[in-house]
Amino acid sequence: MAHECDDCGASFETLTRLRLHDCGDVQSETTVGSADLEQSQSTGSSPAHERNRSVTELETLLDRFSDGDRDALRYALVEFESALSAALEEANSGDTYRDVFWPYHERVSDALDEAARSAGWSFLEDVIDTHDPTADDKIPLVTPTIANAVGRNLIRTRLTDGVSAIPVAALEYLDAIAVTADDTADTAREEVHAYGWGIGHPDHSVADHLRARASEDIFSVNPTLEHAFYADQYAAVDLLETLVRDQSIDGTLPRITRDDMPYRRYLLDCVYGLKTDDYWPGMPRYYDWGEEFDYTFELDETVEQRIRDLVEEAGFDANLPNDWTFRDLGI
Question: In this record, what's one Pfam family (predicted)?
Answer without folding.
Answer: DUF8137
